[in-house]
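Entry:
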Amino acid sequence: MPYFKTKDGCRLFYETFGVEPLKPAVVFLNGTTQTTVHWRPQALYFKKEYQILLYDARAQGKSEVGQLPLTLDIHVADLFNLLVHIGLEKALLVGLSHGALVALAMAAKNPSRVDRLVLCSMAAEPSARSRTALQLWGKILRGEGLEAMTRAALPTIFGEAYLAKNRRILDKMVTAFATRNRADALLAHLDAMMRYPSPSLHSATIRQPTLVISGDQDPLVSSDGAARLAALCRGTHRLLPQTGHTVSFEAPDLFNQTLAAFFKSHMQPD
């Protein structure tokens, strides 16, 4: 399994698909509790036309937490250095929730490295509900453990349609989520997110073509908040029907088609 070691010695797990020098590159960035496994449908769908990079950020999946305090700037530096390590001069970034925060900050701080930007399940300003959810997840995680926290999070990360359709496999999903995460790492991640700057602070400097995607059943991100973010980034907003916070996971086919249309509409001439 490939790992990249940062300058401070933190090992980050990553995967690549369809690596060919002449193809444009796409990096998919995980949301909270997600790992590279969640982007596998996108990697397989796009690997023929694009170089695909998936990675677990610090404190996610198979990556280490590291010795440094977790900050948004640390995550941006990790992404920048990972691109250098892989040999990618520029990439299109697709981030969901926490991954969208990292993608947005990366585009603002290193614009020459970011071709286009897709921000999923994020608003211009964090809502009171989303902040309360982070605090509650941390409290449950400390007191009752990873499986209890995951079960409590299900109604806020999935839409009504997905929960109703998959109610018989929710227990298996809880076990899978708990297996792929570590309690100490997730606690560090949740605590760090409470200190992140508002997305609106970075959005004003964005010049890359930007697509904001949100779900119409997402209790954490309102359609108005997502549309506001798109306006600040001078981009467009797409609201996916019958989906919650994890839009790429709940409606992978529609999500892939939406990405493909955006990718093609903003292809740069040779």
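DSSP finds twelve helices and eight strands in the chain.
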